[in-house]
Specification:
The structure is a single chain. By secondary structure, the chain is α+β, with helices and mostly antiparallel strands. Among the domains are: 15-44 and 233-244, no CATH class; 60-191, Cathepsin D, subunit A, domain 1 (Beta Barrel), CATH 2.40.70. The protein is built from five helices and 19 strands. The protein has helices at residues 91-97, 184-190, 239-247, 259-270, 297-328; strands at 21-22, 28-29, 43-48, 57-58, 61-67, 73-80, 88-90, 101-109, 115-127, 134-142, 180-182, 191-196, 204-208, 211-217, 230-235, 272-274, 280-282, 343-353, 356-366. The strands form six sheets. The chain has a six-stranded mixed beta barrel. It is elongated and about 120 Å long.
């Protein structure tokens, strides 16, 4: 009950008629005259969802007694299914009854060709709590048969269930697990002649050897477990303030530079030289002192000798022909190498690659000696 207008809604959902409202053209109307020229616009948005009442489909369930390994009868909840070709029992129920299982393999096909396999079965002896009906079934073992039945608690206060009948499942309106599923081969044998119906969306009451069962559509109800969300949005900022916020630029956090990147940056600044032709040359940075590389001259000479032997065997003539041709085209000039100096010029070339000239390219290496 609203504390403002005493109507059937929450106080937070109360809308004051004197509050300014904005029409689709953006003008302020339905407010006091002195507030129409104000730059502050108050916007209230309320949204409430109330679930529709819905019908449920109730499945026929009954409590029967199952004999355990010691010969005692334990109450178990059974689902009566006329569309199943086989009988099933849950793994939890088998462990509770301590029954001996038999290794069998069977494939179970459900709706839309969904296949399930079972590898064990068990023989169970059943009896009714209300009549002298009893039988022995061979049930396949599954981890679970179905979910809780029914899915939510039902309000049966208006169902007017007859008082002179014995229900097969007194807690049919309470969500619960299914222990055993009885299929079509016994379903119709357990039915008796009496049947009661009521006009409207009420379940059918059917007499069976296990007691009276209820199945079918239930009256439309809305339970307390159904979600009923309510949203409230109150925005009292001025339009000018919102417009200014849309134009603001969020500050960009400065990027962090690692120690390694800082060292590389300092190396480029320190070891960059300007050439006469306008180009810039920077010394390649190294992560470690070149002296830690050790002596590689012997390994390089060994690789050279291996390459020379291969040339002697396979490519000597072709290589010499290529070098003579390259020298005749002035692509290469012989140079003198001097050992013992720290810096030695290896070669000087002027090469032609795909109609582009690269002149005066010089490669220098630091000698390890």
């Amino acid at each position: 009950m609203c504390r403002q207008c005493h109507k059937r809604h929450h106080t937070l959902l109360h809308i004051d008629r004197q509050i300014q409202s904005i029409n689709y053209k953006g003008s302020v109307t339905n407010g006091p005259a002195h507030a129409r020229g104000s730059s502050t616009a108050e916007v209230n948005t309320y949204c409430s969802f109330k679930c529709k009442p819905r019908n449920q489909i109730l499945l026929a369930t009954a409590i029967l007694e199952v004999q355990n390994k010691s010969g005692q009868y334990i109450p178990c909840r059974a689902l009566l299914d006329s569309a199943s070709k086989s009988q099933f029992i849950t793994e939890r129920c088998v462990q509770r009854l301590r029954l001996s299982r038999t290794q069998t393999h069977a494939q179970i096909q459900a709706i839309y060709s969904v296949n399930t396999e079972t590898y064990h079965s068990v023989s169970v002896h059943l009896r009714s709590r209300h009549t002298d009906w009893h039988t022995t079934l061979n049930c396949a073992i599954l981890s679970h048969i179905t979910g809780t039945t029914p899915s939510t608690k039902l309000d049966i206060s208006t169902w007017k269930i007859p008082k002179d009948i014995e229900l097969g499942d007194e807690q049919f309106d309470q969500p619960g697990d299914i222990d055993i599923l009885i299929g079509a081969d016994l379903f119709y044998e357990m039915l008796r002649s009496d049947r009661r119906t009521r006009p409207g969306n009420y379940s059918v009451i059917q007499e069976t050897f296990l007691g009276w069962t209820l199945s079918g559509r239930t009256p439309a109800t809305t339970t307390q477990h159904d979600p009923q969300p309510t949203f409230l949005l109150l925005e009292d900022n001025s339009l000018e303030h919102n417009f200014n916020r849309s134009r603001e630029v969020e500050p960009v956090e400065p990027s962090t530079i690692t120690t390694e990147q800082q060292v590389c940056k300092q190396h480029v600044i320190t070891h960059t030289t300007q050439q006469d032709d306008g180009g810039s040359v920077v010394r390649l940075p190294t992560k470690m002192d070149p002296k830690q590389l050790g002596s590689s001259r012997l390994a390089a000479e060994r690789r050279l000798h291996i390459f020379e032997r291969r040339l002697e065997q396979e490519l000597k003539d072709q290589y010499h022909c290529f070098m003579r041709k390259s020298k005749g085209l002035d692509h290469k000039d012989p140079v003198n190498s001097q050992e013992g100096k720290k810096h030695a010029t290896v070669y000087q070339s002027s090469s032609l690659l795909g109609n582009k000239f690269y002149d005066n390219a010089r490669v220098t290496t630091e000698s390890n000696n």
